[in-house]
What does this fold into?
Amino acid sequence: MNRSEITRAQERTAEVLKLSGIVLTDNEIRNIEVAGFGLDQLEVQGLELITYVNTDRYCAKELVLFPGQTCPEHLHPPIVGDPGKMETFRCRSGSVLLYVEGEAASNLKAIIPAGSEAYYTVFHEIELHPGEQYTIEPGIKHWFQAGDQGAVVSEFSSTSRDEYDIFTDPRIERIPVIEEE
It folds into this structure.
């Protein structure tokens, strides 16, 4: 992604958050992370996020997904004596379909991104609407997709170490987008 594409995604994300009643500082807007996962299909598989705090004890973030946008399947593994990240997702606006390990839904509501079907393996469906939340235990595979109106999700978790996340899709790179001029 080039700088103008990143800036557009950041501005669009800031506007979605503002419409949801979440105010960001100018510095926070400049630091919105645009996570494309190295797949060059941000609108399909990606998300935008702002991290408010991430210490050795806890983390708080806002996640923004545009309509139909999907965060690919992954898990948070144990790291040097730590059991791995536990996270609670609380839907603030829109809706989000969350998939975790467990009994598969009989009729999947999400649309698995074309060409990535082999990398989605858990289908226990939890649909979150504003005010609803769900906690994902460490080491549990999960993925999520925004509904037709997109979604804003607050994440409260133990320490976030995104660089250690294990994705089912080996093509994924979980590093912030590198700008190309």
About this structure: Helices lie at 3-19, 26-30. The first strand starts at residue 33 and ends at 35. The two ends are 9 Å apart (CA to CA). Residues 177-181 have pLDDT under 50 and may be disordered.
